[in-house]
């Protein structure tokens, strides 16, 4: 599903956020990305959906080399990649249903299919009863559920989550993790950058640790490994 080969990323301020990443992730894997703030975690995951472009090296996602992908083709890449952010990024004037449906409208999905699929993912995240509510009428945890539903409504092969529980209380964080587990169990590749030590140490998956722009640890069923 994902392969990075000798990937380097240096920003204009001279910071080397990726210093020779080499990693292979199979379809259906669940991977935590951990490490101190500023270590390069966000760069690692942003390069997977071409929010950032490597300075050098190849990144192959679902058979596409992102390093050579023309800018005009990036939206087509993202049709098969769902992204979940820490700050939700919901459209404030659209209700829950509309926020999720919008992801299908932009790829010109048939209206009949849109309604069916939106209600399916709302059922998965437990929010069918709040389909007509606006984002600011929801709790933080509910907004994150909507964000997750939007990221998977087009049935992507890959879901990338950047600190998805970072703004949530512990109980809500576990609820969100249960949703990601369900997504993973359905065969979707999940890659999650997180600082949540308890989640990583309790719900065991592969752990990739990044420090100073280098992958320093890559373990199946690994631990968080840092003081939280």
TrEMBL record:
Q: Which SMART domains match?
A: AAA
| Membrane topology of this protein | Peripheral membrane protein
- Domain ABC transporter, chain residue ranges per copy: 2-228
Against InterPro entries, the record matches this protein to: AAA+_ATPase (IPR003593), ABC_transporter-like_ATP-bd (IPR003439), ABC_transporter-like_CS (IPR017871), ABC_transpr_LolD-like (IPR015854), Cell_div_FtsE (IPR005286), P-loop_NTPase (IPR027417)
Keyword Transcription among record annotations: no
Q: Does the keyword ATP-binding apply?
A: yes
Kindly list the GO molecular function terms attached to this UniProt entry: ATP binding; ATP hydrolysis activity; transmembrane transporter activity
GO CC annotations?
plasma membrane
Identify the keywords attached in UniProt to this record, alphabetized.
Answer: ATP-binding, Cell cycle, Cell division, Cell membrane, Membrane, Nucleotide-binding, Transport
Q: Name one GO biological process term.
A: cell division
Instruction: Write out the similarity annotation.
Output: Belongs to the ABC transporter superfamily.
Q: Could you give the subunit structure recorded for this chain?
A: Homodimer. Forms a membrane-associated complex with FtsX.
| Purpose of the protein | Part of the ABC transporter FtsEX involved in cellular division.
Tell me what this protein is called.
Cell division ATP-binding protein FtsE
- Species this protein is from: Rossellomorea marisflavi
């Amino acid at each position: 599903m994902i392969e990075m080969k000798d990937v380097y990323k240096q920003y204009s301020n001279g910071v080397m956020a990726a210093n020779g990443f080499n990693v292979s992730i199979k379809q259906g894997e669940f991977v935590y990305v951990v490490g101190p703030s500023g270590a390069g975690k966000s760069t690692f995951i942003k390069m997977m959906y071409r929010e950032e472009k490597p300075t050098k090296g190849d990144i192959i996602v679902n058979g596409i080399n992102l390093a050579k992908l023309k800018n005009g083709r990036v939206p087509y890449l993202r049709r098969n990649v769902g992204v979940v952010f820490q700050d939700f990024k919901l459209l404030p004037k659209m209700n829950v249903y509309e926020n999720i449906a919008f992801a299908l409208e932009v790829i010109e999905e048939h209206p009949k299919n849109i309604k069916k699929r939106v209600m399916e993912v709302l059922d998965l995240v437990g929010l069918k009863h709040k389909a007509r509510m606006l984002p600011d009428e929801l709790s933080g945890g509910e907004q994150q559920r909507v964000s997750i539903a939007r990221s998977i409504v087009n049935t992507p092969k890959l879901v990338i989550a950047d600190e998805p529980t970072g703004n949530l209380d512990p109980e809500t964080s576990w609820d969100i993790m249960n949703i990601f587990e369900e997504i993973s169990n359905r065969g979707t590749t999940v890659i999650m950058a997180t600082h949540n030590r308890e989640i990583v140490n309790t719900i065991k998956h592969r752990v990739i640790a990044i420090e100073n722009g280098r992958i320093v640890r890559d373990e199946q069923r690994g631990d968080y490994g840092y003081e939280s």
